[in-house]
Amino acid sequence: MKFDTPAGINPIDRMKVVGVAHDRVDGKFKTTGMAPYAYERHDVAPGQLYGFILGSAIAKGHIAAIHTTHAESAPGVRAVVTYANAGKLGKGSKNTANLLAGPEIEHYHQAVAIVVADTFEAARSAAALIDVDYVRGTGHFDLAAAAPTAPLHSEDKDKSKPAVLDRVGDFEAAFAAAPVTLDATYTTPDEAHAMMEPFATVASWSGDKLTVWTSNQMIAWAHDDLAQTLGIAKENLRVNSPFIGGGFGGKLFLRADAVMAALGAKAAGRPVKVAMTRPMMFNNSTHRPATIQRIRLGATRGGKLTSISHISTSGNLPDGSPETATAQTKLLYAAPNRLIGTRLAVLDLPEGNAMRAPGEASGLMALEIAMDEMAEKLGMDPVEFRIVNDTQEDPEKPGRLFSQRQLIRCLRDGAARFDWSARNPRPGNTRDGDQLIGLGVATAFRNNLNVTSGARVRLGHDGVVTVETDMTDIGTGSYTIIAQTAAEMMGVPLDRVVVRLGDSSFPVSAGSGGQFGAGSSTSGVYAACVKLREAIAQNLGVNSADAVFEDGHVRSGNRRVALADAVRGGEIVAEDTMHWGDLDKEYQQSTFGAHFVEVAVDAFTGEIRVRRMLAVCAAGRVLNPKTARSQVIGAMTMGVGGALMEELAVDTRFGFFVNHDLAGYEVPVHADIPHQEVIFLDEADDKVSPMKAKGIGELGLCGVAAAVANAVYNATGVRVRDYPITLDKHLEKLPALIQALTIRNVCEKAK
Amino acid sequence: MTVAAIPTKSVRAAPSPPPGAMPLALTINGEHHRVEVDPRTTLLDLLRDHLRLTGTKKGCDHGQCGACTVIAGGKRINACLSLALQHDGDKVTTIEGLGTPDRLHPLQAAFVKHDGFQCGYCTPGQICSAVAVLGEIKAGIPSHVSADLTAPMRATNAEVRERMSGNICRCGAYSNIAEAIAEVAAA
Ligand code: FES
Ligand code: FES
After folding, report:
1. Domain membership flag for residue B48
2. B154 shares a domain with B93
3. Which of A195, A403, A406, A729 is geometrically suited to a Cys-Cys bond with A246, CB 3.0 to 4.6 A?
4. Residues B34-60: pLDDT tens digits?
5. What's the pLDDT tens digit per position in A366-381?
């Protein structure tokens, strides 16, 4: 099916199952420990051995020699694989660095060997017996040092064209002429996905055929890239990943666990299971790259932006891509004069790549502080300032409208709900005992993407509808919304639908990424269900156009037949793929929201606590308000992490992330997160898909950190432009009046 | 059931004990087990790899995430920080011992109702921790945020959040987990 004209009325609009808050269909398995994640597949591939991966101890250089004899003769060891005996390997098209190093080392903790043994303990201790002679090369690890000479990055696929900044109007002249201007630089640090389930794979060969039970968000990408890396035919490879313990972009790509498990299993002649150790994950895998962002805003005294410039610099390995932190700035606020672009430095740190809301998450961390600063310069309320600069058309292509854009309503509804009018615009002036109280707001913005997505649907003779698609559920609720979609389309209750996901033997779906998963994969299921309805109608000899599927029956005219009767002759199977036309070119398709945050900053210690959080989201139809809300609160939580604690500390001498475990890389815990409120505007966007739904899982993160940062500023009057806002960055700068208060309190307590 | 990927039975191929293995007897979820393990084996790996009780998760293996929380000798512990041999004679409760898909423990049911999870990987640890937290509060054991160390404890939002803070949920289901626990605490 091709979606190339706005959706008319369709069976999803009944909203009997879709749009209703349902408990997760996989909930009882996850809460009882019965959902099997990759490393736990005792039900497959008998005789599994244990693999342990050794990572490089240097960031750049090469291996002069690698001595494995001691490891090979250690008790219980079955095989040791390094570049020296792995055979020729390719590189996946989505990988920047090789997944097995040697002799070249491209980054710290790049895998250099796998030890396969009878037990985990034996494999781990033998790995410590491998001696590697490294020759350290010179690398570049310091973004701030590399930034001044970092070249502009071209988004054009044609790399022969010189990279240029995106220009609209005359930014320089307009900025110079603007009566009120801001020119500020913000930094965001490297961040880690830190999903709870480590990278893990069970690999099993049978002759030339390989099966991997793994943890991966994008089955088709893993399928392509593992086949390519190992040099095997795709039809000889099966990838299975029904449950995934979080990904956030970290499991979009083929990673070392799968490659090393496959190599280890081949060498040992037995199935091998591998989980990457937590301390290896941070430097072995991908991360969200740090940015340095310069933002310039020029406005009239009335608060109309006349000029916007946003230039972001990030780093990556050779042939890597930049963090596209300027993406939202192209579309978010009106201003006739614009200058936008990204610079990319070569750094020899581990590979930078997508983490939840790549681009916008980092970009809005900066842009939405800049908007707050500008509002203050203008003497305007920050909500009003954003409303005044709203646009209903693509600012770079006037006349090209948004498919639906209710940002103003998000801001207004949120302000009313959050009691925003109680905010004191003078920072550092609201107290609650020893706590300085602040309120902050930020816009949330993330583009909606649609990706080709297929599914197969069966109506069994028991009347059960089974959906098969290689779509994944990484905690997003795919099982549930896909079941809801099929139930709505086929007119059966939710418990008459079986959903099978995450297997490369199923039709290729969008996969989970870029907040395109929900809308795209359910559209693929919609397409397959339309075909199944046609086949059923044909079987029954009725016209599919006026057949109504409801309550387990097909109704046409005054005929009413039970679905089960349609399959008397055997199950009916239909398969289709949703393809997308040009509606996304005709209309800009984006999702919108507003985040409101209240913080308390301890006047004595500078400690920041988040007290209240509200998100108002406008993202088309919400397929399951319960799971969608969870996506948003989870994203808000990650936003608090980005604002207040998350930072991979770079050792710029040796080129690695120092805090590479869950004790050193701090993420929010229960005590950090208050009750969170989420409101969805009642929308249905007919220009995006027959589901009329857009992505939500990344929107929820976009802008949160800036809302926290703005609340902290409102509390303290100290503007911190370098994330995360840890207390050392404002403690010494807390205003004199707070110091006076502190001294007075200390004296009183001393009496 | 609407999820088809749940394995019904395990393929058993009991590994022969490695050289230097030591004997150990313990009771897990009411079932008695006698095993021989490499002394380096953690309680977590004993559960997951040897006994195939994979409901208990490994998130870090370093006591930093709480995914491996089980209740041993009536107290919640990180099973990754404990060697199996330290538990000779112990009674251990894991997520599998609390409830089953058809007979959920009240906290498991509350987690489903309040959507107190997303990917589900931290969830068994969260639930085991929550069971123990409610017990600790009932037993009057104070926490860092208890204002009065001797007064009876109440399962307030602040108390529960403080006590649950050793269980990381990267999916960020905290607000919902707090509501699930509050519902059971009030019941
Ligand atoms: S696995 Fe034990 S605390 Fe993380
Ligand atoms: S549900 Fe995914 S980490 Fe908690």
Report:
1. yes
2. no
3. A195
4. 999 999 999 999 999 999 999 999 999
5. 999 999 999 999 999 9
Domain with A633 in it: 360-448+589-737
Contact A633, A608 (CB under 8 A): no
A459-470 pLDDT per residue, tens: 999 999 999 999
Show residues of chain B in contact with A497, CB under 8 Å.
2
> A493: nearest CA in chain B?
B2
Domain that residue B76 falls in? 8-97
Contacts of A476 in chain B (CB under 8 A): 118
Task: Please tell me whether residues B113 and B83 are part of one structural domain.
Answer: no
Residue B65 lies in a domain: yes
Angle at A535 between CA A529 and CA A540, to 5 degrees: 125
Question: What single DSSP character describes residue A632?
Answer: H
Instruction: Collapse the DSSP code of A488 into the 3-class scheme (helix H, G, I; strand E, B; otherwise coil) and give the result.
Output: helix
How far from each other are the two terminal CA atoms of chain A, in whole angstroms?
Answer: 79
Closest listed residue to residue A445, CA positions, set A343, A365, A375, A525: A365
* Closest Cα to atom 4 of ligand 2: B169
Contacts of A119 (CB under 8 A, 6+ apart): A50, A76, B15, B18, B38, B41
Q: Note whether A77 and A123 are within 8 A (CB).
A: yes
Number of structural domains (chain B) is: 2
Q: Whose CA is nearest to atom 3 of ligand 1?
A: B63
CA nearest A648: which of A230, A246, A188, A325?
A188
DSSP letter for A492, please.
-
H or E element that contains A16: none
Q: DSSP alpha helices (H): ranges in A6-112?
A: 27-30, 69-72
- pTM for the predicted model, two decimal places: 0.96
The answer to whether B6 touches A34, Cβ cutoff 8 Å, is yes
The region of weakest confidence among A30-34, A155-159, B64-68 is: A155-159
Instruction: Strand A431-432: give its sheet, edge to edge.
Output: A431-432, A435-447, A590-602, A608-618, A676-680
Q: Which residues of A are catalytic?
A: 698
- The preferred substitution site among B42, B49, B61 for testing ligand 1, maximizing ligand atoms within 8 Å of CB, is B61
Residue appearing with tokens 């920050």 = A382
